[in-house]
Amino acid sequence: MDEAPPVWVDRVGFKATITESFTRQSKFTYGFVVEEIKTHDEDNNICTHGSRVLPSRALSMDGPPTTFSGTGVDRMAFLQANITRDNTEFVNGATIGDRYIFQLDQGLGIGSKNPFFNRHQLSVTKFINLNKKDKGAGKPPPAVLAIHGRYAGCVGDLPSYDAFAIGGPHSVRGYGMGELGASRNILEVATELRIPITVKNRQTQVYAFAEHGTDLGSSKDVKGNPTEFFRRAGHGSSYGLGVKLGTVRAEYATEF
After folding, report:
1. Torsions phi, psi of 220, nearest 5?
2. pLDDT exceeds cutoff 80 at 38
3. 176 close to 197: Cβ distance less than 8 angstroms
4. pTM for the structure as a whole
5. What is the distance, to the nearest Å, from the Cα of residue 163 to the centroid of all Cα atoms in its chain?
6. Which residues does the UniProt record annotate as the domain Bacterial surface antigen (D15) (predicted)?
């Protein structure tokens, strides 16, 4: 892959939201967001296009535009809504149950070049109690199989800083943030097996995981096609092992 000098994205604005709790497990949050986005290079100058280092070590400045307006500065206003249904519970310290999250961002055509868009994301996670351990003080936590899926997409105007990045600690582990590409649509699937162990009379867990992410062929629909420009794959998978040490996770991941 080609080297890519970093572009820093600064956001400033305000967000006003209202949250309604339907039940203990379900809530609905909706609101209004206004923000200004600026993109900078490493010297803190306004950066209008991405760049890459050529084989000659010269810097190519003909990359994808960093903002929707093409000026390095965007202003926009949009509505945002989020529905969360969380049926998870703790069984002897392990999370068991289901969690569903749906988020919707609706552009209003207000701002730089009147951006109008609909961004949507659906995330589903299921934690399965494998050995049916019951709750109880002093009882060991159960072995857990976690299954996760996420779909996200955008219809309408899409600035590159809001494209869906594939790869990273919250996408496909083992890759850097956005190392696999930036896309208009994304599909991620993951599974993780968690096994409790006792070390010096303290409970912890070891786990194994496998993950996959793909742009569903939508990278070309991002303005300037940053995935192709920076020669990213657009998809990738990983698997690995890890151990939880208190609130810290130590992991080893392999890409394939």
Report:
1. -65, -15
2. yes
3. no
4. 0.88
5. 10
6. 9-247
